[in-house]
Every structure is written in C-alpha cells, then in structure tokens.
C-alpha cells in the first residue's frame, strides 16, 4: 500500500451498502424466528399493582420478570436497572414485558389487551425536584454521582481578584437518531445464547449477559451485524434489548428478534444529558482568569447508565482551552423519572464546552474586551496544567489554528461588515469557538478497566485478518484499521481482512466509543503488525497479539481526580455564520469553517466525513433539535416532531487540518470522531448572539425564546 | 381481505396476494425479499424506503400496495443492473458519501429521480432534491458532491 497513510482509499463496505445487499438486523431472518415487542410503562413513576394478560393464542408468549434469573438487574456500570420492571416503574416507556410471536399484528393486538394497574408515586421531573426530593429514585441522595475536582486554591484567588463574573448555561436533550433503529436477535441453542445485532460494544453485551444469566463465558456469544450508525446510542442500550431477547429465546426455544420502531426509539432509548451549568470566574486586573468555580448538574434520567463517566468528562472539560490555575468544580448527576440519559458523541464535553465558550464571550462583553483577544490571552499552552493537574505535554497549535480560521472565514472583516449590515436591518452574525477533546477513556479506564487486547492472524494465503471487538458503524473503523495494518506490514490493503466482530473469535479490544478505536486500538494494531512483520517468515500461519500499555510518564489518581485525565488531546476551532430572519427569528446557517488538530489523519476522506457529520449534528443540537419533557412525556416523540437537519439546513463546510502528531497514537493519530461535534454548538449560539445583539445562554436556540428575551429582556 | 395485485417490479411482471393496504415497503421486503429499501421511520419522514413508481420518487412506507396495481416499481435491486447505477455508486464511493449506509439505497434512488428530471442540477437543486432523505452520518455535503460528480460522469445518460 502507498506510503502516505493519509491518502484516501475506497471503503470496502461501501458497495454492499449502496446496492442494498448489506444485511442490517432488520434484514436478517432466521428459520422459525419470532418477533418481540415491548410492553411499556404508561406512567412516569409508580408501583405495579397487577398485570392482567389476556389468554394467548397458540405460539404466542409473554416474557417478563418471572422469566429471568434473580435479582433481575442488568450491570452497566451500576446494577440498578431491571431487565423487565420488577415491581416499580421509573419512566414512561420502561419495559415491563415482551410479547413474542410470529405475526406482528397479532402481537400488537395482544399488547393492546394487557391491563396494568399502577399505584402512582409523585414523579421527579426537574433537576430542582431531583436535588431536593425526600423520595429518591436512586440511593439516599438521588444522585448517580456527586464529585468535586479541585486545582490550586480557589479561596486565595477570591481575595485577590479584581473582577468577578457569573453566568448560568443550559443545554437540552438530544436524540442520536441513527438511521437504523435499535435491533437485536437472540438465538438460544444447545445451552448457548448467541446475540446478533446493531451495536457498538460486543463485549459490553457479552459481559452484561454473563452477569445477568450467571452463565459460563463460552455460553454467550455476541456477533455484530452491519450497524446503521450509533453515535453513543448503541453503547449501553443494546445490552438491555439483548438480555430481553435472550430471555425470550430461552423461553420460546426459537430465535427472537426485536427491532424498534422509530418512534419507540426516539421516545424510550438513551439520549444526551440535559445540563445546567453555573460558572463564576475570577479575573485579575489584566483580565486573566485566575480562578473559576463551576457547578455542573446533569439530568441522568431514571437509571445510572453511564452518567458518572459522562459527568467526569464534563467536569474535566469545564475550563475549556484556558489556563485557569485555580478551580473548584462541583458535579452532580441527578436521577429523574424520565428516559435514561446515556452516551452521545462528545459524552459530556459538548455541554461543558458550550458553557465555557459562551461564558468567556460574555465576560469579554461585560468588560468591553475583544472576545477573541481575551480568549487568546487566556489560552493553554504546552506545559500548562489541565483541570485535573495533568500536563499538556504536546505542542498546542491553537493560536495558529485561530489565525487559519480567521483567514479562511474572513472573520474580522465579516465581524465589522455584519455590524454595518445589521444597521440596515440584515441580521447577520458570526461566532467562533475553541475546544479540545481528550482521546480515549477518561482517567485510567484504558489501563484498569478495558485492558484492550488485539490479535492479527496471518493465514496460509498470506492474507492477514484483524481480530478486534471494535465495530464498523459508519465511522470508517474497518478502513482505518486495515490501513494501519497494511501500511505497517507494507502489503496491499486487499490482503488485510476485517470481518464484523464475533466474540467467539475476537479478543476484547474494548468498546467502540470515546474516539478510542483509531488512537488506542489502532496503535495496538500497529504494534502487532510491527511484530508480525518481523516474524513473517517464521511460519505459514501465525497469530500475533498486542496488549494495552499505559504510556510511560503519565499518571492518574481516580479517587482524587488528579493527574492526566487523558493522554492525548485533539483541538479545534469552528466558525459559524448565520443570518436571522427579522420577523420569524429563524436562523439560516450561511457558512461554516473548521480547523482541527487530530494528529496524523489516517484517511482524509473518512476524516472529512467525520468533520461534516459531527458539525451538522452539533448544529442540530444547538438549533433545531428540540426535545422537551412535560409531565414525564416527551413532547417531541415521533419522527414528525423531533426534527434533525436535512440537506437544506446546512451549507458547505470548509475544513482544514493543522496537526501535531501524538507519540503514542498510530503514526501520530489522535482522537477525531467526537471532537468534530464539540465546537459547532457554541459557535452557532455565538453567531446568533452576534446577529441579534443579545445574550444567549441556552441551547437549543429557539425563535420563541429569542422573542421572549427581546420582549422581556434577559 | 386479500387482493391479487399485479405490477411491474424491476422490469418483470409480478403478482402478489395481500391486503390492499399493506405497505409497499413490506410487500417488497417480505413478499419479494428485496431488502434494499429500508424502514427508517415508517412515516414518510426519512426517505430510507425510497423507490421509484412510474419514474417518480415515493416513500414506500406510506404507499398502499393496491396503488401499485399496473404500475412500474423500481427498487435499488432493479437499478443495480444498469450503467446508471455504476455511475452513481462509483460517484458515491469517490465522494465519500457512504458511512453507515442505512440511508444510502434511498439516497441513490432520490439522486436518480433527481437526475432523470434535471440532468444538470445546481447545488441548490440537489439540496432540494435530497431534502426528503435524512442522513445522520455525513452532514450531506459529500452526498451532494457525489450527485454533482455523477451528473457529470453520466452526461447524456439521464
Ligand atoms: S421509512 Fe419511509 S420515509 Fe422513513
Ligand atoms: S450514511 Fe448513515 S445515515 Fe447516511
């Protein structure tokens, strides 16, 4: 293969997807297969007093709590969630039972006849209620996590600060809306459960099921099928569906398939955590931010899921790209009686970066400073300490990147031109955001929990198969992994094989999350390929393995949250330009410019695809993707109400790379997938703010809210 | 109640016995085993189920089978045999327009429907023409690039 790894190659998975031959879960049929549909709670919180099932036609089954082993708890990080509601329900849509059979219409009919009698309990629906409740959903204090991160001495700073600025910021829900809804098939045969389906983390499912069914390791097998997008939404949730489908297959002795309807998926599966963030900054007389207090509250929904780690990432990112030497960060993830908040591209970082970027801009405005100069004056540089006291070890190119973004977007010229045009009634605005993303798991996750292992298998025909548990879900993992191996071995790419993972064949190289597949797993593949190259002639067939090693010189104390929360950081600068309609206050996005430092690009076209896709999801998050909860139900709960961007809502995106390679990433690669999401929400909000000359502190930015602010002041 | 419905599917005359209100999407997927048209929403919002009926782009999830009577239905499996498909698919690959792929067959059908009507579309025409097809992965620009590329490469064929 060619010697410039960045040069794009054809994606091997593309043709089968284009022609419709690729088999997603909905396309796969097994002989004698049955379908399962979920009976869900109709209330937000209560006890189940009784369930009356109708008599079932031959070949139809009910699967519920009585069909699963005790204690009926699924282990994600904590074990607080039942696979089928035990005797309480905690959100509208919580699964109570499955109706299983051959004909979907008959299943629907049975579902409509089931009567559940509840005893209502006052639900917790807001963060305030969740923080002050006497009837906690979770633990004693109703918090899935309650942390503090400290750096320096915030009290000392309070005495010497010349200026203080305080602000409060809010972000809303966001639904992943992967185009392929959740889907799982379970097949129980000869004492062994095999799970097929749409997923990001085959071993998460395997481990969750091993624990749930108390099975031996060889009795559970998980096979990924072509997966139509994940974005975090298929990180933990498929484990729940898999446990339900497996219980059904055990009971019915036939394969059972569960594929969600879109509306079911929108309303009931995991979403991005809404947040409320208070920031209070202390500045010296040169307008250096010398200290900051932060209070971050995330709405975790009804069960713990991944809230604690999402919260950690939000807390560690809260000082943004700024060198703030004294910090006091409080973080809480609150339980509420709503659908579970889980993983979504960025994993807490988008909420934090929205808050800090808006906060910095508002400080500058308050004290009549040029926002960009003010931000640059406070930027981190190599050698500075991160929020957790780790060290930024590599060169930080942010200043150059900002320059580049200014030139690409004619930022300064437009800033002043738009000001003039606004006087003539054209509401144009431009905004810039600066951000980073830490690559891989937070803290020592890679070292202590994941312990990734990869294998390469050299076959008799001189092809090499990659054996890892990371999945292709659209992001290009198949292509980048093959490129790294082919490049290292210096063999044609066609000689390197990547099949969808099957836990009976592949080792646990960890989940497909946290932008870790290229940086962490890719590096292990490079190491394994290096070894295979040296031993190539040793035998006709060979297996080479590589295990994760924590890079030397880094440190992390997970109890105190001290040290290097991440081993590498990727950076970005985004510029968004909008025009706001002066009557409806709808915004049109006119231009987007982006500069990133992702270390070495492994495939430029795949990189561009991640950039465009991430930015557009971020723009949706900040603009049109509205999801509100009233009395426990989402108002936007169907594909007709929950709106995501179409081809008409986004412009061309100008992007460039300006990269600083990372010593421990394959050929210098750093994290990419999530980074591309993080910057566009604040840049969008700032551009609308610029266009309207008012302060925006909440996303999604909605015309109704703008009108409200204009009428009543903020 | 079941009806006998006759139509032309990918150039061949076919007959199916089903409820007249069965969704065409289910007829294609269940009765004919053509799984290229996908269900992304089932409500006419996403275009993943796009097929052409008498040359017009429709969402097969909203289309009752009975209405196909006597009409020509073209799915991705039918288009696949043509030179046009080759041009479209090569352009999609070269432009990086495919990620998870769940929207892709529908996007190809929508692109074909657009180019048949308008062989030299402007960028705006393309954005309009594909606006009924959602994609959550690509942010659309690389798909638009692909359609531009295909328009050029297939000049005279549309
Ligand atoms: S499935 Fe038909 S439009 Fe979405
Ligand atoms: S490629 Fe995934 S939805 Fe379009």
UniProtKB/TrEMBL annotation, chain A:
Name all Aldehyde oxidase/xanthine dehydrogenase a/b hammerhead domain ranges.
19-122
Q: Membrane-spanning residues where?
A: none
Q: What is this protein called?
A: CO or xanthine dehydrogenase, Mo-binding subunit
Q: Which Gene3D superfamilies match?
A: Aldehyde oxidase/xanthine dehydrogenase, a/b hammerhead (3.90.1170.50), Aldehyde oxidase/xanthine dehydrogenase, molybdopterin binding domain (3.30.365.10)
Native species of this protein? Caloramator quimbayensis
Q: Name one GO molecular function term.
A: iron ion binding
TrEMBL record, chain B:
Q: Name one GO molecular function term.
A: metal ion binding
Recite the UniProt keywords alphabetically.
2Fe-2S, Iron, Iron-sulfur, Metal-binding, Oxidoreductase
2Fe-2S ferredoxin-type domain mapped to chain residues: 3-79
* Gene3D superfamilies on file: 3.10.20.30, [2Fe-2S]-binding domain
Family annotation (Pfam families):
Fer2, Fer2_2
**Presence of keyword Metal-binding:** yes
PANTHER family found in the cross-reference section: OXIDOREDUCTASE WITH IRON-SULFUR SUBUNIT (PTHR44379), XANTHINE DEHYDROGENASE IRON-SULFUR-BINDING SUBUNIT XDHC-RELATED (PTHR44379:SF8)
Q: What is this protein called?
A: Carbon-monoxide dehydrogenase small subunit
The organism named in the record is Caloramator quimbayensis
């Amino acid at each position: 293969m060619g010697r410039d790894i960045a040069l794009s190659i054809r994606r091997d998975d593309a043709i089968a997807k284009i022609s419709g031959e690729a088999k997603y879960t909905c396309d796969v049929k097994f002989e004698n297969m049955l379908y399962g549909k979920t009976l869900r709670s109709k209330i937000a919180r209560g006890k189940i007093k009784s369930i009356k099932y109708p008599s079932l036609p031959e070949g139809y089954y009910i699967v519920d709590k009585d069909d699963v082993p005790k204690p009926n708890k699924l282990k994600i990080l904590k074990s607080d969630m039942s696979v089928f509601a035990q005797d309480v329900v905690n959100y509208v849509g919580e699964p109570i039972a499955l109706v299983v059979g051959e004909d979907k219409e008959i299943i629907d009919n049975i579902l409509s006849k089931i009567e559940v009698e509840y005893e209502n309990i006052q639900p917790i629906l807001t963060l305030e209620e969740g923080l002050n409740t006497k009837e906690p959903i979770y633990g004693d204090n109703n918090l899935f996590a309650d942390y503090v991160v400290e750096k320096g001495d915030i009290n000392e700073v309070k005495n010497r600060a010349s200026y203080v600025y305080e602000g409060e910021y809010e972000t809303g829900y966001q639904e992943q809306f992967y185009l392929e809804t959740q889907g799982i098939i379970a097949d129980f045969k000869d004492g062994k459960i095999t799970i097929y389906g749409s997923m990001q983390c085959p071993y998460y499912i395997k481990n969750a099921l091993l624990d749930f069914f108390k099975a031996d390791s060889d009795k559970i097998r998980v096979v990924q099928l072509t997966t139509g997008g994940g974005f975090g939404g298929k990180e933990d949730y498929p484990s729940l569906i898999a446990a339900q489908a497996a219980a059904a297959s055990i009971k019915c002795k036939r394969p059972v398939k569960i594929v969600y309807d879109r509306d079911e998926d929108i309303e009931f599966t995991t979403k991005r955590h809404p947040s409320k963030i208070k920031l209070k900054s202390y500045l010296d007389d040169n307008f250096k931010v010398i200290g900051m207090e932060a209070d971050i509250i995330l709405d975790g929904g009804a069960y713990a899921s991944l809230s604690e780690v999402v919260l950690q990432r939000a807390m560690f990112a809260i000082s943004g790209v700024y060198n703030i030497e004294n910090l006091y960060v409080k973080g809480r993830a609150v339980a509420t009686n709503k659908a579970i908040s889980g993983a979504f591209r960025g994993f807490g970082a988008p909420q934090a970066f929205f808050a800090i970027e808006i906060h910095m801009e508002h400080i500058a405005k308050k004290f009549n400073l040029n926002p960009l100069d003010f931000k640059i004056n406070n930027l981190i540089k190599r050698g500075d300490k991160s929020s957790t006291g780790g060290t930024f070890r590599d060169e930080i190119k942010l200043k150059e990147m900002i320059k580049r973004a200014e030139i690409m977007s004619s930022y300064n010229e437009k800033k002043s031109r738009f000001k003039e045009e606004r006087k003539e009634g054209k509401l144009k605005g431009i905004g810039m955001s600066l951000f980073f993303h830490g690559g891989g798991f937070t803290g020592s996750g890679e070292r202590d929990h994941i312990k990734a292992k990869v294998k390469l298998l050299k076959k008799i025909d001189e092809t090499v198969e990659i054996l890892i548990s990371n999945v292709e879900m659209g992001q290009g993992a198949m292509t980048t992994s093959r490129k790294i191996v082919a490049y290292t071995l210096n063999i044609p790419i066609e000689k390197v094989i990547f099949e969808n993972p099957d836990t009976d064949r592949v080792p646990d190289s960890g989940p497909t999350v946290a932008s870790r597949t290229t940086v962490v797993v890719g590096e292990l593949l490079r190491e394994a390929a290096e070894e295979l190259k040296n031993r190539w002639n040793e035998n006709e067939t060979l297996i080479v393995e590589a295990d994760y090693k924590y890079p030397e010189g880094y440190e992390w104390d997970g109890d105190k949250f001290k040290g290097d929360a991440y081993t590498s950081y990727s950076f970005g600068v985004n510029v968004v330009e909008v025009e706001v309609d002066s009557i409806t206050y709808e915004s049109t996005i006119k231009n987007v410019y982006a500069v990133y430092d992702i270390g070495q690009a492994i495939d430029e076209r795949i990189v561009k695809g991640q950039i465009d896709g991430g930015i557009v999801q971020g723009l949706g998050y900040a603009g049109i993707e509205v999801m509100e909860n009233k009395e426990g139900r989402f108002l936007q709960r169907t594909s007709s109400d929950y709106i995501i961007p179409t081809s008409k809502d986004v412009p061309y995106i100008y992007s460039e790379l300006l990269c600083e390679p990372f010593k421990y990433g394959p050929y210098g690669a750093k994290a990419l997938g999530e980074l591309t999401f993080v910057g566009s929400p604040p840049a969008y909000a700032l551009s609308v703010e610029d266009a309207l000359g008012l302060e925006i502190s909440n996303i999604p930015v909605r015309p109704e809210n703008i009108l409200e602010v204009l009428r009543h002041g903020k | 109640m079941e009806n006998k419905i006759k139509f032309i599917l990918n150039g061949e005359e076919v007959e199916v016995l089903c409820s007249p209100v069965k969704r065409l999407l289910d007829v294609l997927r269940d009765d004919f085993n053509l799984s290229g048209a996908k269900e992304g929403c089932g409500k006419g919002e996403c275009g993943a189920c796009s097929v052409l009926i008498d040359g017009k782009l429709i969402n097969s999830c909203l289309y009752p089978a009975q209405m196909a009577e006597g009409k020509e239905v073209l799915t991705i499996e039918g288009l696949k045999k043509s030179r046009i498909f080759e041009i479209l698919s090569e352009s999609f690959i070269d432009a990086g327009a495919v990620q998870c792929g769940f929207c892709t067959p529908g996007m190809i059908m929508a692109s074909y429907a657009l180019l048949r009507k308008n062989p030299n579309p402007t960028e705006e025409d393309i954005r309009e023409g594909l606006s009924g097809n959602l994609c959550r992965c690509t942010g659309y620009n690389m798909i638009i690039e692909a359609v531009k590329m295909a328009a050029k490469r297939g000049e005279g064929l549309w």
